[in-house]
Amino acid sequence: MKTDRVRSKERNRSPILKIAIVLALLTPAVLVLPEVHSATASPVNNEMSGAKTAPPPLDSQDHSIQSRAANPVHIYQAESTLTRGEGLQAIIKTTTMTYKNMKTLSAQYRLERWTGTAWVTYKASSSSQTQTSVLYAGSDWDVLAGYYYRVVSTHTAYDGKVTDQVTRTSNSILF
Q: Region Disordered: what ranges (predicted)?
């Protein structure tokens, strides 16, 4: 009778143990599976992602600082970001910061669309202020579905004698 109880308990544990073993074996396989949306330029991925072109090449994101002085003396922060808004809305934000108030502080920015072979300007704008050390500028623009977009911004600081200029390029986003 005692052995019947032991066998009964083993039979009851058996399905739970089998499920636990199956889950333990499947979990590593699920964690190692590649993501569905990779950045390779194959027609299959473009169809799945809704892209009308192959993805743009990855840039090294070099940012240039140019100054008439031997070393840049004004701009210490220059940023441009591109984020997705509601629907097909691209939200562009730029920030320019200098060490002291400038006679003129400006930002010119453009939203570029990837054609499959080149970046072309889709929309552009600019903002400028005087006697300030901080400039925030931005726009919300409607875009076309299925294209990659990025922002290129040029930040300029002028103190009356020396001009510093910084160019930034954001990462691209598929809308």
A: 42-64
